[in-house]
Amino acid sequence: MPETLIDARALSKLHWRCRRGLLENDLFVERFFQRFSDTLTDADAQALGLLMNLGDNDLLDLNLGRKTLAQVDEALVREDVRRVLDMLRKPIER
């Protein structure tokens, strides 16, 4: 069964919810939305929401690879969260 793409209203709400207190996290999030907003699924949105529940320092540690999902929260050790975290971390291709 194909995954459902997130609709425009839900995408706008998700983007608003993802605003962070640390500029470094905002840079990861903005790059994520620039690249993937057209292809985000409902499952991706839910996984991203779980990551956004983290504090800024934990999220930054994950984005920079200083901590693993298990070190931050065992409940986040899921394939969908891992996939979205990889999307957040994906470097810019030149």
Summarize the structure.
This protein is 62% helix and 0% strand.
In N-to-C order, the SSE pattern is HHHHHH
Radius of gyration: 13 Å
- Given as residue ranges, the uncertain stretches (5+ residues, pLDDT < 50) are none
**Estimated structural class:** mainly alpha
Shape: globular
The CATH architecture comes to Orthogonal Bundle
Q: What is the mean predicted local confidence, pLDDT?
A: 93
The CATH fourth-level homologous superfamily: Flavinator of succinate dehydrogenase
User: Count of DSSP helices?
Assistant: 6
CATH topology: DNA polymerase, domain 1
| Largest sheet, strands/sense/barrel | none
Number of strands: 0
| Structural domain count | 1
Descriptive labels:
single chain, about 90 residues, mainly alpha, DNA polymerase, domain 1, 6 helices, about 60% helix
